[in-house]
Amino acid sequence: MSAIKQIIFLTFLLIAVMVACVYTYINQYGIQTDTTITTSSQEETKIIEPIEEKVTKEITKNEEVIEKVEEKANENVDKKTEEIKEIEKVKEKIIDEKKEEPALLENISQEQKIEELSKKIQPKKIQPNKIQNNKTQEEIDNILSKEKIFFKRLGTDITEKSFKVVQDIASILLKNPNVKVEIGGHTDAKGADDVNEWISLQRAKSVKKELIKLGVSKDRVTAVGYGETKPLVPNDKNGYSFENRRVEFKIIEE
Quick one: which H or E segment has residue 113? Predict the structure, then answer.
């Protein structure tokens, strides 16, 4: 064999060996490497996806919380604004009242002046009535100091002798038509309390009845029985007292 043929043969042989080596290497390492890379990528994808989903949920949740906080803050701001408005209204009202105070004080002062003037003027009109009232009482008391009103023995009707006393008192009352009187009946301490009270009331009513007959309006006369509760002097040991058995007149209204 010639040298050229031998070189060509060796070259092809070497190429064949190299191809075989490359093929063997690819079969052993190339495919295995691709599989490993693919599997790792899938696993990473499986791990990454839940994390992204969780993060997204957390962000959404935080955004909702932030929205609620902002809404609450806005509500508080609105509430504070309303409170401030109310406070301003109160302040304005107080200021207005302060402005009106001088006018009110002036009005009160004027009313006080008028009242003081009225007090100075009115007594001149009222005083005669008071004098008339006292005078009427004195006139009645003067009559009774001279003559008492007597009643029939063991009875409640006035005696004929006492009619003149009642007539004189009626005359005074008729001259003073605005005067109202109380007729008070009194007894001594002889006998039971309730009996004495009843007797004193009936005697006061008898006097009232005679005054009405003489023209005094019944609305102007009140009859009261005090019994033995208001003695003028101490009763004796047996309960007797001439002075305590009496009828009194008291002006109660004009």
Answer: helix 31-146
